[in-house]
């Protein structure tokens, strides 16, 4: 989902139509399912309220119960040092008293004198044991703990202990012997989806079917409808923590290379890329649209002598694309920089930036990658210390030798990209490479033609696992050529006059690239759908939640 202009692939229309039809049917079915579930939830809540009894008279009642609202209204300042993160509960804390907060993932009573509560926080889980003890834990407290609804938020005081047998089903291999337990906020008795169901891998579901057992499979639309619950799975916690690090590395690397972070407008006149795939709107009586990319403004920043700039921000595309890798709104990772001699200087930044990023993710995000891999198994990305670069003509030749005929002046379709990725992996041992010197006809109007053959351009795409994640190029900085190219691409030059005029005041040779954050994470983690890496996806059929 690069922020460069993307011309639809020849084979995309068929995929779009079939996906569109299936998606509409699924959406209608899901709406009916949601209404039925809503009624069931209301009935469960009413039943719970009707059957709710005050805690029996208990001399130890102060050690447990629901925290009153007034105590949650910032009544008393807390000493944060008194709290322990669930992920930090280790053997080193044995016999130490701790205070934790998390969600009651599961509860289980063992008779009237003991209950187990598995508490989860930030993807980590610990088993808490509530055992009736004189002057500490009453039977009523055990009953209260066992009756907690799943996903309720609880505060637990207790002492850390190490069980004699390894604990299955929790990340932490210690227990907490509970002395106090308070419910901060109760979840509904019946949830739309169970976290346990949403955390299952396809392999687990298939193995259960082979064994004659049917497990619940939570489909994608249901996940997205109840995204707040879906976020709570370990895989999703991992995905979005990895995404956070991608942005962090992107920013820190570029700052270290003397780039300046900028913030360009998302409300613009005309269209930033040309074409009809824009969200049009009325801007105080004037025609406007949402920016398809920060392309024009980041180039204007270069003309304003910033030298090197980057931006992390929203990008909008009104394309009717119903594929696994397209969104109507995504987060763009955009770069623009002066060029001293050659557009390979831009590719050098791409090379160093992404190799640094991949190295960091593999080293610093190992636990998050493991969490993703448990639910969505994938092979670690294969990449080289020095990124492979191939000319477009070389890629076409490789495909031709493999029996795939490609128009030498056309674009690669989705299947050709995948095939070339397979060939590159077999020949060079990498799933990350740069393909450059694309035909000019398939690139945006602001792309600089090659000096030795105007049918080609000083441009490039970057691929991961056979799919494009980055588009970049040297830009046209000569105003007369820029206007000529815009008109040739059918763009009303009057709508981009402030852009073209920027180059009339003296502009340095420059180039840049754009990537889609969600697509980078999707392909690095080997995921099959970009909606898994978008916090709240926006596609042609979804604008909520």
TrEMBL record:
GO BP term, pick one: aspartyl-tRNA aminoacylation
Domain of life: Eukaryota
EC number(s) per entry: 6.1.1.12
InterPro entries recorded: Aa-tRNA-synt_II (IPR004364), aa-tRNA-synth_II (IPR006195), aa-tRNA-synth_II/BPL/LPL (IPR045864), Asp-tRNA_synthase_2 (IPR004523), Asp/Asn-tRNA-synth_IIb (IPR002312), NA-bd_OB-fold (IPR012340)
Cellular component terms per the entry's GO annotation: aminoacyl-tRNA synthetase multienzyme complex; cytosol
GO molecular function: aspartate-tRNA ligase activity; ATP binding; RNA binding
Keyword list, A-Z: Aminoacyl-tRNA synthetase, ATP-binding, Cytoplasm, Ligase, Nucleotide-binding, Protein biosynthesis
Coiled coil ranges: none
PROSITE patterns: AA_TRNA_LIGASE_II
Record Pfam families: tRNA-synt_2
Region feature (Disordered): 1-41
Catalytic activity: tRNA(Asp) + L-aspartate + ATP = L-aspartyl-tRNA(Asp) + AMP + diphosphate
Keyword Aminoacyl-tRNA synthetase: yes
Compartment list: Cytoplasm
Record field: compositional bias (Basic and acidic residues): 1-12
Domain Aminoacyl-transfer RNA synthetases class-II family profile span(s) in chain numbering: 240-537
Family from the record: Belongs to the class-II aminoacyl-tRNA synthetase family. Type 2 subfamily.
PANTHER family in the cross-refs: ASPARTATE--TRNA LIGASE, CYTOPLASMIC, ASPARTYL-TRNA SYNTHETASE
Protein name: aspartate--tRNA ligase
Organism: Populus tomentosa (Chinese white poplar)
Lineage: Eukaryota, Viridiplantae, Streptophyta, Embryophyta, Tracheophyta
């Amino acid at each position: 989902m690069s922020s460069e202009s993307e011309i639809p692939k020849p084979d995309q229309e068929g995929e779009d139509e079939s996906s569109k039809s299936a998606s509409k049917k699924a959406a209608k079915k899901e709406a009916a399912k949601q209404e039925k579930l809503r009624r069931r939830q209301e009935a469960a809540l009413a039943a719970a309220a009707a059957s709710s009894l005050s805690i029996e008279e208990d001399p130890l009642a102060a050690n447990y119960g629901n925290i009153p609202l007034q105590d949650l209204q910032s009544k008393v300042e807390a000493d944060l040092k008194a709290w322990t993160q669930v992920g930090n509960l280790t053997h080193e804390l044995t016999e130490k008293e701790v205070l934790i907060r998390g969600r009651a993932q599961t509860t289980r009573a063992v008779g009237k004198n003991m209950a187990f509560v598995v508490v989860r926080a930030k993807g980590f889980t610990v088993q808490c044991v509530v055992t009736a003890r004189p002057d500490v834990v009453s039977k009523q407290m055990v009953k209260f703990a066992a009756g907690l609804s799943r996903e309720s938020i609880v505060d637990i005081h207790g002492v850390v202990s190490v069980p004699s047998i390894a604990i299955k089903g929790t990340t932490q291999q210690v227990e907490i012997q509970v002395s106090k337990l308070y419910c901060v906020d109760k979840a509904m008795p019946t949830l739309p989806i169970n976290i346990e169901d949403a955390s299952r891998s396809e392999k687990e579901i298939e193995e259960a079917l082979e064994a004659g057992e049917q497990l619940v499979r939570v489909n994608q639309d249901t996940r997205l409808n109840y995204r707040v619950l879906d976020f709570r799975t370990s895989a999703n916690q991992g995905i979005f923590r990895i995404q956070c690090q991608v942005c962090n590395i992107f920013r820190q690397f570029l700052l270290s290379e003397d780039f300046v972070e900028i913030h360009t407008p998302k409300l613009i006149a005309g269209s930033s890329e040309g074409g009809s795939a824009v969200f049009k709107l009325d801007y105080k009586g004037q025609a406007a649209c949402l920016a398809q990319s920060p392309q024009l403004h980041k180039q204007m920043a270069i003309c304003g002598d910033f030298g090197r700039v980057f931006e992390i921000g929203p990008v909008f595309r009104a394309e009717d694309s119903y594929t696994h890798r397209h969104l109507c709104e995504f987060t763009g990772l955009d770069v623009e920089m002066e060029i001293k001699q050659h557009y390979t200087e831009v590719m050098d930044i791409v090379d160093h930036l992404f190799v640094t990023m991949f190295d960091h993710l593999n080293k610093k995000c190992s636990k998050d990658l493991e969490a993703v891999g448990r639910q969505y198994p994938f092979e670690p990305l294969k990449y080289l210390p020095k990124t492979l670069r191939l000319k477009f003509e070389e890629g076409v030749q490789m495909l031709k030798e493999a029996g795939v005929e490609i128009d030498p002046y056309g674009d690669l379709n989705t299947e050709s990209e995948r095939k070339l990725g397979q060939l590159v992996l077999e020949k060079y041992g990498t799933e990350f490479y740069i393909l450059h010197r694309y035909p000019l006809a398939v690139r945006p109007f602001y792309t600089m033609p090659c000096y030795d053959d105007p049918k080609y351009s000083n441009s490039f795409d970057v691929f991961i696992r056979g799919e494009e994640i980055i588009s970049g190029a040297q830009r046209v900085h000569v105003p007369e050529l820029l206007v000529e190219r815009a008109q040739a691409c059918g763009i009303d030059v009057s709508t981009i006059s402030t852009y073209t005029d920027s180059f009339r005041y003296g502009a340095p040779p420059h180039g840049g690239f754009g990537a889609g954050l969600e697509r980078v994470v999707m392909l690095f983690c080997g995921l099959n759908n970009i909606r898994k890496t978008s916090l709240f996806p926006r596609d042609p059929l979804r604008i909520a939640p």
